[in-house]
Please model this.
Amino acid sequence: MEFQSYFPIWDKLTAAQRELILGSLTDREVKKGALIHNGDMDCTGLLLVRSGQLRAYILSEEGREITVYRLFDRDLCLFSASCVLRSAQFSITIEAEKDTRLWVIPAEIYRQVMEQSAPAANYTNEVMAARFSEVMWLVEQIMWKSLDKRVAAFLLEESAIEGTALLRLTHETIANHLGTHREVVTRMLRYFQGEGMVRLARGSVELLDERKLEALRDA
Model:
């Protein structure tokens, strides 16, 4: 499928605006683990995921990571082009969680289209509002939910994304998603294992009792 079928407001753009975007568009393929955007000094452009999976995270001064949101097929990332929004800067890093194919719209090109097109401006505001909602949800989770509930929620979400109860995840990976230390995650997972909720093996976590995990998440 072509870019036109992935970009939601394509039919609302003028012929000149469409030509401007198509003339500057690049198609990229990135391997799992590759960094696509690195902090607020980088203005990569808008990313539209064609297939695959990306992870956006923030990095503390101590080097600790925490996942802000993830991007799947047809998702658009604006924070990778935060220079489009002159009053907002976001120090977010974006990496490929899986082999990913995506389109990149240069930031300056999208800024031109957004300044000319009310539908593009409205769409941009909607996407940004949705992302900020995810950020606020994350803040609430960190502030008000205990780590055991957050780990349970993460495991259930990951199982839903992958479509399997056997998750190929290291404790370090889980810690990076949740913004905590590997040792803390290890202790929590061992507790889950003792309660019969998961089975641990090298490089994997298998969900054995999703109902117990859901009850913990929702408690």
The CA atoms of residues 174 and 184 lie 10 Å apart. The mean pLDDT is 91. The two ends are 43 Å apart (CA to CA). The longest strand covers residues 65-71.
